[in-house]
Amino acid sequence: MNTPDHDPEGLRPHSYDGIQEYDKRLPNWWLFTLYGAIIFSIGYWAYFHWTGHIQDGWVRVQGQIDALKLAAAGNSAAPEGRKLWEMSREPEVVAAGEKTFMSTCAACHGADLKGGIGQNLSDASWVHGGTPSEIYTTITQGVLDKGMPSWGPLLGAQRISELVAFVISKNPTIAEPSE
């Protein structure tokens, strides 16, 4: 039973649970893998932590939040009256505006826009201005003296534009802007 694999002289003198251990060198492929992993990890750590190519997670998240806020601020400018007028002629936009109107405005202005708690939106009398741009501003900023909340932070520019387009499409007295 003395084969090259079972060399009794290569056994270590200790025994645990009846198992004896050979005193052999690890295979080269295993050692190359171990040393390569060690060298790679040292290089990786040095590159990313000494050179500053990696940012902390909270720094990356804060940068993304700042970029989104900047983009939102750029998109929050009120559209021109002409653009709102053109939107009021697009059925998809008017349908989206009607959906928003029914969920947020109909309680005060009525489902038929005839008023109630809020002003009548289907006649020629406008308390805070009846041009598309003025309607947009009124919805965005609200009129706290009259009990109308500021919808700008809640709805955003796109939904307010759709809402204005819906109101314009239902009121024949609003003239096409000359802008």
H/E series: EEHHHHHHH
Strand content: 5-15%
Low-confidence stretches: none
According to CATH, what is the class of the largest domain? Answer: Mainly Alpha
| Biggest sheet details | 2 strands, antiparallel
CATH superfamily of the largest domain: Cytochrome c-like domain
CATH architecture of the largest domain: Orthogonal Bundle
Number of strand segments: 2
- Taking all Cα atoms into account, the compactness measure Rg is 36 Å
| Total count of helical runs of at least 4 residues | 7
| Helix/sheet category | mainly alpha
What is the CATH third-level topology name of the largest domain?
Answer: Cytochrome Bc1 Complex, Chain D, domain 2
Structure description:
- There is one protein chain.
- The protein is mainly alpha-helical and about 180 residues long.
- It has two domains: about 5-50; about 80-170, Cytochrome Bc1 Complex, Chain D, domain 2 (Orthogonal Bundle), CATH 1.10.760.
- Helix content is about 55%, strand content about 5%.
- The protein contains seven helices and two strands, in the order ββααααααα.
- Strands 1-2 form a two-stranded antiparallel sheet.
- A hairpin with a 2-residue loop joins strand 1 (about 10-15) and strand 2 (about 20).
- Helix 3 (about 80-85) crosses helix 7, helix 4 (about 90-105) crosses helix 7 (about 150-170) and helix 6 (about 130-140) runs antiparallel to helix 7 (about 150-170).
- It starts with 10 loop residues before the first strand and ends in a 9-residue tail after the last helix.
